[in-house]
Amino acid sequence: MSTTRPYSPGDRGHEPCGASGVSEEGAPVDGTSAGVAAAVPAAAPSEGRQVRRLSFDGESGVVPLARDFARQALYAWGWLPAEGADRRAAAEDVLLVVSELVTNACLHAEGPDLLEIACDRKVIRVEVSDRGAGQPSPRTPHRAGRPGGHGMFIVQRLCLDWGVVRTPGVAGKTVWAELGVPA
């Protein structure tokens, strides 16, 4: 499903000040600077939402950097090493979605600015912010044998939901996608 709403149906909306590691003014509450890659201290999986952020400011090789960052978060949250095939597949799906969203920001925007990965008991949410004006969408009709252009189709197939958030008066957008936590 492709949407433009900022959160999926029934989602919690923005977290209260400090709950996501960033104050309402956008400043980190963990003492890190806003422009530095920061792993927000994570609660234990049973204690609620866990968030990690990575700034791409001045970085090169952002797709592998993003995958490595996401992989580290999955290890920290207990998704990896995976206990079975379903959990392993779910972790690989998260890494693939991260790769696709960051690659799209590289190809169709001015590159990614920020990657945020959040996990709670039911959903893992991936957000990639960029300065691009374009609107991501799956290529229609999807042509399986044709190279390229499959990124958002893959995201659409793997995710519970995805969408785009734009802030009025601010250049760019945030593309988000949510995947279900394996049982």
**Structural class estimated from helices and strands:** alpha+beta
How large is the radius of gyration? Answer: 16 Å
Strand order of the largest sheet: 1-5-6-4-3-2
Portion in helices: 25-40%
- H/E series, N to C? EEHHEEHEE
Give the biggest sheet: 6 strands, mixed
Mean pLDDT: 78
The low-pLDDT segments are: 1-5, 7-46
Q: What portion of the residues fall into strands of 2 or more residues?
A: 15-25%
What does this structure look like?
The protein is α+β, with helices and mostly antiparallel strands and 183 residues long. 26% of the residues lie in helices and 20% in strands. The chain has helices at residues 62-76, 85-108, 151-158, and strands at residues 2-3, 50-55, 112-119, 123-130, 161-165, 173-180. Strand 5 (161-165) and strand 6 (173-180) form a beta hairpin. It is globular. It starts with a strand and ends with a strand. The relative contact order is 0.17.
